[in-house]
Amino acid sequence: MKAKNINMIGNRMLLFFILLIFNAACFAQKGVPLSIGISEILHSNVLGEDRTINICLPDNYNPDDSIRYPIVYVLDGGVDEDFFHIAGIVRFSTQPWIDRFPQSIVVGIGGNTRRRDFTFPVENTDFIEKEGFQKASFPTYGGSEKYRAFLKNELIPYLSGNYKSNGKQTLIGESLAGLFSVEILLKQPELFDDYIIISPSLWWGEESLSKNAEKFLQTNLKKNIKVYLGIPNKEEDIRMYDEAIALSEVLKRNNKTHFVFDYIPDELHSTVIHQAVYNAFKKLYPKTVYSKE
């Protein structure tokens, strides 16, 4: 009888410890949610639609103190696009032991209408098929003027009014977003202080934007700006490389641009953005002393 009681006690003790371990494991699995930012829905009267805006704030951001921050805008900035990894590069570059770039607010603009938003109007679209695309793949296009108005009149004022911006602004765009970044640089350069342009689709409109780059800059550029132009392996698309070289020659000649051309032969059009943004911070901002004043 005693042996039976001892066995029952032993079994109960074993069951107790199993349940204790199981509960501890369950508790550990619950964890704490990890967040790097917030998403907001901003209605645009200019575009006639809602846009998702993803925002990553600096670590020590405090709405009640006097510190203000630059804003980095990522055009393909959805959570399924480039927002997360660009925010990571910015965070790395702003660490005190790196001190390459000031603590910044990162803003990613989400959306699935990039072929409409990032292209300017053209008289006909015959060139699209010459470039290897089907015309049907551009069901809507030519909306860049509206999108520039959205940035200037709605998004930038909204962020400046609701977040602690110091007025300094960087724009990041790749591919069609790179084309749009070039258009802003040439037509409304005052919107941003620094431009990080990667593998831009300058073929749109039979290169008409880059062909008129010199004239646009002479007319519109009134302040000093920084421009980074990153290009992937030229063997993948020699024409894209040549178009970028032609644009870079114009930018080099302009005395208001601090210009960096970066050829990245180890990357392709589909992979270049991450390395290019990292390089841009390294080349444009080798060392930055950030004042809290």
C-alpha end-to-end distance: 82 Å
In percent, how helical is the residue content? 40-55%
Task: Trace the largest sheet across and list its strands.
Answer: 1-2-4-3-5-6-7-8
User: pLDDT average, as an integer?
Assistant: 89
What portion of residues belong to β-strands? Answer: 15-25%
Shape: globular
Would you report the number of β strands? Answer: 8
How would you classify the helix and strand content by structural class? alpha/beta
* Poorly predicted regions: 1-6, 14-19
Total count of helical runs of at least 4 residues: 10
Main beta sheet, described?
8 strands, mixed
Alpha-carbon Rg, integer = 25 Å
Order of helices and strands: HEEEHEHHHEHEHHEHEH
Can you walk through the features of this model?
By secondary structure, the chain is an alpha/beta fold. The chain contains ten helices and eight strands. It has helices spanning 2-30, 83-94, 114-117, 126-130, 144-162, 176-187, 208-211, 213-220, 238-253, 272-284; strands at 38-44, 49-56, 69-74, 105-109, 165-174, 194-198, 225-232, 257-264. It has an eight-stranded mixed beta sheet with strand order 1-2-4-3-5-6-7-8, with helices on both faces. It starts with a helix and ends in a 9-residue tail after the last helix. Residues 1-6 and 14-19 have low confidence and may be disordered.
